[in-house]
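Comment thread on ticket #2218

A.B. wrote:
> Attaching the input chain for the structure job we discussed in standup.
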Amino acid sequence: MNHFEIIANEIDQASDNGDIQAVRKALDEIQTLLDADDQNHEATLYYYRANAFAAKRAINSNFRKTQFDWHQADLSDEIFSLRKSIESDDFFQLNIVRCCQIYTNLGNALNTAGRPIEALAVWDKALKIIPTFAMAAANRAYGLIHYLEGLYDQGHQCLFLVEAARSFEIALSDNAIWDGAYPDKIKQKFQSELNQIKHHLEDNCNDLNSFDPNAFELGKNDEAIALNGWRLKNRLFLNPLNDLGELTVASQDVFHLPSHSYAFDEKARFPQYYDQMKQEYVAACVLLWEGLREEEIHPADDTLLTFEHGDYSITSVHIAKQKAACRTAYSLRP
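C.D. wrote:
> Ran it. Output below, let me know if you need it in another format.
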């Protein structure tokens, strides 16, 4: 057993025993190795670091069962460590099952942090590597179920449930890839969830039997088709269905405010501000699209006199569009 396997076992045992001191010891060992600039094992070490923070979070939550902290430092450190693992140069040198484990764990952590949209994108990355990876599929299903609870459109809810059912079916299929020895009760739980979804679909979503989510056109001309296809691929439409993937039914910005009321003599004001925010977001998408795809030098750049600053900076109208898009999108954050 090598040093890394020993650390992994220490974390697992500490988690099982609720030994917070052993977790801290493992974190110190990992940090020592990371400080030694061992880049050949950076992805693995950050994965173990994330597991240690997950163990620490689980142990602390057992001590505080009735308390919820808005600021969860251990969860933040877990997400940071998983992202660092994925960004490491040696990440894709890992076994593909380990890559899927890391993506799955990141999706789980993001979902726990209340970021289900990002979680779905990460679970999908795991399933692109191994389409039958059981835990990525099952956690994706749970994420979809929790996500749809915030949707006001019943048709959208039905489509989310169809996807959730499909994900559970992947996890329960005979060719599903499991990354460890899981107890039978896990599969039984997945099957129970799947049965409930199927019953709900039969009772409430019969209209979907002849519905094709990819039977919608992307635009009236080549330019519109290219732009809308790019937005679909990058999940940039203000449409929850875009979080299910590149479904052409999602190629409309249909995200609206929930139902709300005003006093009898009060002027409606929220829709106006909300529509302005949506318009600015769409404009930011177009700016980014133009800034990324335009390859020829813009005529305005030919007449612009700039100095060589010696810092390898690059300026152009195309890059300015990308920056403007990012600034506009960031300004719309709550």
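A.B. wrote:
> Thanks. Noting for the ticket: The chain has a mean pLDDT of 90.
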